[in-house]
Every structure is written in C-alpha cells, then in structure tokens.
Design the sequence.
C-alpha cells in the first residue's frame, strides 16, 4: 500500500513525481526487449526471490548474501530523485532503498579499492533478451569508489512505496541521479570492488557515444542529439537540462580538476 | 483511354494509406500513445514514410517481373502519400518535439549526420512532389521528368541511412528496408542491362 506523506528529506526534489503508470511501462531494460513497452510486458519471467548478491574483490569481508538478509541490514529510506535518460527524456521517481555507501562500508574496502563494479543477472531463461547478442551480456556498470560512497548513490528495492517491479530492476538496482539513467544497473547479482576502472556495457558497445562517467551534462551533446534540453515525461514542452541533473551542488566537487568533455 | 479495371483501387489506397493518421490522432486525443506520445508519433510517421515510399518503388519492378499493370496506377499516389508522411515526420520533430527552437533545429541539421541525411531525403522529395502532375510531365518532357524522378532512389536510400544511424543497437529492422530497397533497385538494373543487350544484339541494318 502507498505510504503516508513524509517530511521532505535533504536529497529529495519537490518536483511532482511522474505517474506510476508511466514510470513502470516506459523502460529501457534490453534484457526484456528493445521497445520501451517490452520490459513491462515481458519481465514476468524474472524471479526476484530467492536472490543472492555476491560482494567481493578488494574488500576485507567478501560475502555471498541472500537478498532478504541484505535488505534487513539497512533501514529503508525514501528518496524522490530526478531521472534523466541519455535519450533526452526524464522522470521524477520516489525510490525506496538504502545508500550504497552503507553496504560498502560494511564489507570494508581495502586500501587498493578504487572502483566498484556491478553485474546484472545472466540467465537467458529469466531474461530472454540475453538470447540475442544485442549487447555484451551480462550488463555491467561501474563507479569510482568516491562516487559510490556519495550519499546520493542509492541501492533501490522499491518505488512509489511498493516493491520494485521486475521491469524497473527487481530486486536490487542502482540509482545515481546525477548520471544518465543507463548507469543505474538493474537486477544486480554482484558488486565487486576493484583496483582498476571496470568495463561498462554501453561504453563497450559504443565508446564514442557513452563514456564511463556519463554525468548529465547539457554542454556535452550525444553525437546524435543535443543534451541541452529534455522532455519530462507527461510534459509537452522541453525543459533545459541542468548540469549533473540538478545535483551539481552535491556532486560537482567529485570532479574538480577533471575535464568533463574528455571524461564524458 | 480505356476505363480502369479496378475503379476502387486508388480510393482504397488513399483511405488505407491515410488511416494510420486517423488512428494516431485518435490515440493522441485519448492519451493512448503511452508515456511519451510525441516520440511515438515521431517514430510512427517516420516508419510510415519509409514503408509507403518503398512500396511506391516496388510498383515498376512488379510490372517488370510479373507484367502487372495495376501497381503503376497507384505509383504516383503512393509516392505522394510517402512524401506526406515524411513531411508529417519532419513537422512532428520540428514543431512538437523541438518546439520550433530554430537554434536547436539548425544545430541538429548541420551537426548531426543522422538528422542531416533525413533532412536531405525530405528536401530531395520536394521537387518530385512538385513535378508529380501530368502537366509537369508534359512540360518537362518525359525523358527529363524520368531522369529527375530517379532522385527518389537517392532520397529513399538516405531515408534508410537515417533509420540505420538512428537505431541505438539492433540493426535488424533498418537492414530489412535496406535489403528490400537493394532488391528493387537490382530488378531495375537487371532490366536495363537486358534491354541494352537486346538492342546490341539486333542485326545492323
């Protein structure tokens, strides 16, 4: 059941959330098809329980943990975030989850840990889209450790007060609201801390169009379309896109001294 | 001129060809086009333009291969319908999607090859639509008119390139169009080679 109104948190936007119907029927999740409507139609084959997440690599306490146990370690928090897709549309989504930083601290990164690599489930039976070589499966993503430790970086298990629907990345997905949506890897089965920058699916598919950082940046266009503006789902007119998707105050410091045109 | 054997053919093609517009408009009004209706209209009008234009290019090859003459009766209508869809596609992009932001439109058309080729395809179709009347055929003379209208192959090829460059990952669908277009062109090339051979093998008089 939907939750009662709560006070606005420090990371929440007060913008109107996108209708639940739109946020759960207009998705990019190529494991279930290439059209935006495909995931909602096809993702019923995914079984989000039982689910195991492996946390390993450069950590003192590597582990393999059941999803329910993992979730029980952290109190659920509500976060209303803007979501900006690299395709120049955007939504406002009320997520439920816990900060990624909490999980990372719990497993104690070693001094060698510099990056965090994420992997989606690989199972063509549950994810029929993986039968086609559309992308190099399984989907992988990554963050620099300091990005991953930022309080905005969320591991989500729900939205709109409900359990995360399969098409939105059940049972566990990443949400990094200052980056393009494709960084928000879905249906995570593995989180590895690494010394070197991990590969990421879309930059492997097309290095010229999708970078490792993928920070929302109105000044760096996608080669095929402008990133200067976006269409908020449900609105008619485009609106200007904000640097770091409006989270510049919180995250710009992570990139001081970096050329963001080079590191797009 | 003998009366047409299929008097219903043209009206049927016209009504059938325009019915997707009515459906789109109806769904738009009902809010049944999903979370991003403008994107949906953009995709559908683009697909329809390509489908109808490829269909118009199939008319002559069908005549050459099977001797059917009815496709030739609807060739012009299909060409004009395809042009109309290309115009709707462009207007959806320029007006609904970009809100006639001239700076953004100009940057798109000049800086982004996928939009450049799409725009070029549309521009190349304009003189063909303008000279589609019987009066223009007479005024230009048939050989000149025919040469001009070969531009349609360039325009539709650019349309297919536009589609190929637009796709993020799976190229299957645009490549189907590329193959069909290639086949249709091959039939015409084969026919013109055959004609030239026949002419060359005629005994000198």
Sequence:
């Amino acid at each position: 059941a939907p939750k009662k109104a709560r006070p606005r948190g420090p990371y929440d936007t007060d913008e109107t959330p996108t209708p639940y119907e739109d946020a759960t029927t207009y998705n990019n999740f190529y494991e279930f098809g290439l059209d935006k409507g495909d995931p909602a139609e096809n993702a019923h084959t995914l079984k989000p329980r039982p689910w195991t997440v492996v946390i390993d690599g450069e950590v003192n306490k590597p582990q393999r943990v059941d999803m329910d146990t993992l979730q029980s370690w952290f109190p659920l928090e509500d976060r209303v975030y803007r979501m900006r897709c690299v395709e120049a549309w955007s939504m406002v989504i009320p997520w439920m989850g816990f900060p990624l930083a909490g999980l990372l601290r719990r497993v104690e990164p070693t001094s060698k840990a510099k990056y965090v690599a994420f992997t989606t489930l690989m199972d063509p039976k549950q994810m029929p889209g993986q039968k086609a070589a559309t992308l190099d499966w399984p989907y992988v993503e990554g963050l620099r450790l300091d990005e991953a430790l930022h309080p905005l970086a969320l591991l989500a298990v729900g939205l709109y007060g409900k359990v995360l629907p399969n098409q939105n990345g059940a049972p566990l997905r990443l949400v990094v609201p200052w980056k393009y949506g494709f960084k928000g890897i879905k249906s995570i089965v593995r989180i590895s801390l690494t010394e070197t920058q991990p590969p990421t699916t879309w930059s492997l598919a097309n290095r010229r169009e999708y970078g490792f950082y993928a920070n929302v940046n109105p000044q760096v266009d996608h080669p095929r379309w402008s990133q200067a503006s976006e269409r908020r789902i449900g609105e008619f007119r485009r609106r200007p896109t904000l640097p770091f998707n409006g989270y510049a105050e919180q995250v710009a410091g992570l990139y001081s001294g970096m050329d963001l045109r080079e590191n797009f | 001129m003998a009366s047409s054997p299929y008097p219903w053919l043209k009206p049927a093609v016209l009504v059938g060809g325009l019915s997707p517009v009515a459906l789109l408009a109806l769904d738009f009004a009902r809010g049944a086009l999903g979370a991003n209706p403008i994107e949906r209209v953009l995709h559908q009008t683009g697909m329809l333009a390509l489908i109808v234009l490829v269909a118009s290019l199939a008319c002559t090859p069908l005549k050459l291969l099977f001797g059917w003459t009815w496709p030739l009766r609807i060739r012009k209508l299909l060409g004009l319908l395809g042009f109309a869809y290309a115009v709707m596609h462009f207007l959806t992009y320029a007006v609904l999607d970009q809100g006639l932001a001239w700076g953004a439109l100009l940057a798109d058309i000049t800086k982004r090859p996928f939009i450049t080729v799409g725009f070029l395809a549309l521009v190349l179709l304009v003189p063909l639509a303008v000279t589609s009347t019987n009066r223009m055929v007479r005024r230009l003379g048939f050989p000149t008119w025919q040469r001009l209208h070969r531009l349609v192959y360039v325009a539709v090829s650019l349309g297919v390139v536009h589609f190929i460059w637009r796709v993020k990952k799976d190229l299957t669908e645009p490549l189907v169009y590329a193959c069909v277009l290639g086949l249709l062109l091959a039939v015409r090339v084969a026919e013109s080679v055959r004609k030239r051979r026949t002419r060359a093998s005629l005994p000198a008089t």
Remarks:
- Chain B has one domain: 9-176.
- The radius of gyration of chain B is 19 Å.
- Chain B is about 80% helix and 0% strand.
- The first helix of chain B runs from residue 9 to 30.
